[in-house]
């Protein structure tokens, strides 16, 4: 379990600026304390709540957090219930579900509700920290100048244009025909990876690694990651189609992965 692992120096460096703030929600006092201490040791400010109800009260007072970490199984409001309540309250905060419920159906439910990540509590703290880093950093491994080896058109610093799509890498935002697409940070990462290399086939595994990090598997069997990526892409497509019914830019290469269609 998370509270039983030894915590190592992960050499984690936060992006410049004021310390990030994370709200941790779990009914296990030891996990709350363990996560809070170790995140704070890595330069992240934390607050804790022992229930979903307490978390919602705190967020009603102060929603200025960069990330919420939610346990799924809690008395009263579960982590998923809390995430739904956050959505209903219009709280646009990224959330990680941290749970011992590892079956794929739970991950799909969490992601469909809006969680940006789903982490097994048996993972070491270094893995949890890496996931937190991905969210807080916005876009992993990107050059702030906006340059990329793909064929996407580079505009002002940090922005690229691919047909009707504009990617603002500094803000982690995507715009379709100048209207912002309501993507989560994780969904944005996937769109950026595909669209910055239009016409190039990207493997399922490479897309999955972008979200979860290398050498992480989910579900049963070695190909569980494919269903996870398909679930992400399905939601991304729907968000674009809600804005433009003619959207067909994300193409599937069966058995291999996805590509972003080159602009005509």
Helix count? 8
Radius of gyration: 18 Å
Helix content: 25-40%
Strand neighbour order, sheet with most strands: 2-1-3-4-5
The main β sheet shows up as: 5 strands, parallel
Average predicted local confidence, pLDDT: 80
Catalogue the unreliable spans.
3-13, 139-150, 217-221
- Overall morphology: globular
End-to-end CA span:
51 Å
Could you spell the SSE succession in H and E letters? EHEHEHEHEHEEEEEHEHHEE
What is the number of strand segments? 13
Report strand %: 15-25%
Oligomer: single chain
* Class from helix and strand fractions: alpha/beta
Description:
The protein is of the alpha/beta class and 264 residues long. It contains eight helices and 13 strands. The strands form three sheets. A five-stranded parallel beta sheet has the order 2-1-3-4-5, sandwiched between helices.
């Amino acid at each position: 379990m998370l509270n039983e692992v030894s915590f190592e120096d992960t050499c984690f460096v936060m992006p410049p600026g004021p310390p990030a703030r994370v709200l941790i929600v779990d009914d296990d006092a030891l996990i709350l304390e363990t996560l809070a201490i170790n995140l704070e040791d890595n330069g992240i400010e934390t607050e804790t709540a022992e229930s979903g109800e307490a978390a919602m009260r705190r967020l009603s007072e102060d929603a200025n957090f960069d990330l919420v970490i939610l346990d799924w199984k809690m008395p009263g409001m579960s982590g998923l219930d809390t995430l739904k309540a956050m959505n209903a309250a219009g709280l646009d905060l990224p959330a990680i579900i941290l749970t011992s419920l590892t079956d794929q159906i739970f991950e799909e439910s969490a992601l469909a509700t809006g969680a940006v990540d789903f982490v097994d509590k048996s993972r070491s703290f270094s893995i949890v920290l890496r996931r937190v880093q991905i969210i807080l950093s916005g876009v992993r491994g990107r050059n702030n100048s906006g340059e990329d080896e793909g064929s996407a058109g580079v505009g002002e610093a940090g922005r690229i244009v691919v047909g009707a799509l504009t990617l603002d890498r500094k803000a982690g935002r995507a715009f379709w025909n100048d209207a912002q697409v309501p993507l989560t940070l994780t969904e944005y990462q996937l769109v950026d990876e595909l669209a910055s290399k239009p016409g190039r086939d990207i493997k399922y595994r490479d897309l999955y690694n972008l979200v979860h990090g290398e050498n992480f598997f989910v579900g049963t069997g070695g190909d569980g990651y494919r269903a996870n990526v398909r679930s992400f892409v399905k939601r991304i497509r729907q968000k674009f189609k809600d804005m433009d019914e003619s959207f067909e830019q994300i193409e599937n290469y069966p058995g291999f992965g996805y590509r972003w269609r080159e602009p005509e």
